[in-house]
Specification:
By secondary structure, the chain is mainly α. The chain has 14 helices and no strands. The chain is globular, with a radius of gyration of 23 Å.
Amino acid sequence: MTYDASIADDQQSSSAALTLETDLAAAAARPPSIGERLRSPQTIISFVVAFALIYFIFTQMHINIGDVWSQIRTANPALLFLAFAAYYGSFPFRAARWRRLLLNAGISEDKGYAIPNLQGLTEIYLLGWFANCVVPAKLGDAYRGYLLKKHAGPSFSRTLGTIFAERLLDVVALVMIMMLSALFVFHGSIPVSLRPWFIVGAVLVLIGLGGLLALMTASHHLQRLVPRRFRNSYLTLAEGIVTSFSRTGFLAVASLTVVVWILEGVRVYFGAQAIGVNLSFSAAIFVALLASLLTTIPFTPAGMGFVEGGTVLAVKLFGMTAAQATAVAIIDRAIASYSVILIGGLLYLVTKRK
């Protein structure tokens, strides 16, 4: 009786596990609805928090909206166009870098996957960016992974691993370049008000590199901490992260990363110059990188509220008035976030890749 009961229990457990795996597979196959995410209480609350932060910034810094508008209305269209071109011109470079990471992780045409061309990957990338701008917690990254799985067929976990690897590359490059630019523009003495953000950045880098080292050296030991039903997904995710850092093509990945961050600085530089704010290029690089670091805050879409406040404070450090700094922040966010909501939203409506 004990033996029979044991067999029955094993069969019941296997059946339950199979049912759960089927349910998980079905859930993964269902496309995440951005519309549903937008209407969710979490997203609505995140926008309320963002607008409350922006209101707090305007009131606490005694920013005169009339002065800000006077600064913005003088914008030079040609320089604004260059700022837009620098920003949207970075997406093909981002997509090319992701393609290289996918290749490192074994997701390529040679392996039987229908990887889109550079234009197609750029579309997917922009759609993921759009999702990040309208929902909190960087869910656009998961959406990007889902889109590639849908159109090319690779494992979602492995694809997500390449995106995690990409994010780690960005954080490491961002913090290193930001520290170097800060030491340069502030002549070796970083302002006290900025030091907490450098500490946050350094902690993120240490956590990221520590996690990568753990995956490289002890992944199979770590899997014991993962519930059995998720172990296959965990191992595939870990493999996607680790193999993305293959030495093959790493120089190309690093070079593309540098190009992307230089274009971020170009965006801020021309945006500031367009409204008559004489921000040096090294200062623009620093402001762009600090803004990007603040977008990692998951509580609001694309760090909304936090980024605007951080940008205003950073620009003021270079001797600009509150109105000038606010105008720079609004122009930059209009390019790097608000325009993505418009352009990405239109792309979402018309593309077949959603």
